[in-house]
Amino acid sequence: MNGFYIVGRVSGTPERVETSSGLPLCRLRLSVRKTNKDQEEGTEVFEIVLFRSLAEERYEEGQCLAVSGRMSANNFDRDETTYYHTNLIGNSVTVIS
């Protein structure tokens, strides 16, 4: 099973671009509250990538979203070192008021 479900607030201004093939793409960051084992609160920020109609929606800083989707792993080699990166690709977005 390859999936995630995350609820958080939009942090910063979402970046909207088009791929080289003209596909709408939106990158946004979600700030999510967390509590560690000592009950200290903090936040984690996750970058979510949205395509097609989801990328064309207008998301605003501070807006609360629930996003579900899949993870996509990428790697590349540079200077004899392999780098790994995981993308969170959103398949569904719900605005929580």
Structure description:
With 97 residues, the protein is mainly beta. It has one domain: Nucleic acid-binding proteins (OB fold (Dihydrolipoamide Acetyltransferase, E2P)), CATH 2.40.50.140. Helix content is 5%, strand content 71%. The protein has a five-stranded mixed barrel with strand order 1-2-3-5-4. The longest helix has 5 residues, at 52-56. The two termini are 30 Å apart. The model has no long low-confidence stretch (mean pLDDT 94).
Radius of gyration (CA) equals 15 Å
* Order of secondary-structure elements: EEEHEE
CATH architecture: Beta Barrel
CATH superfamily: Nucleic acid-binding proteins
Q: What's the total number of strands?
A: 5
The helicity comes to under 10%
The structure class reads: mainly beta
Overall shape: it is: globular
- Rounded mean pLDDT score: 94
- For the termini, the CA-CA separation is 30 Å
Secondary structure tally, helices: 1
Largest sheet: 5 strands, mixed, barrel
Give me the CATH fold name. Answer: OB fold (Dihydrolipoamide Acetyltransferase, E2P)
Domain count: 1
Strand content: over 45%
| Biggest sheet: strand arrangement | 1-2-3-5-4
The parts where pLDDT drops under 50 for at least 5 residues are none
By CATH reckoning, the class would read: Mainly Beta
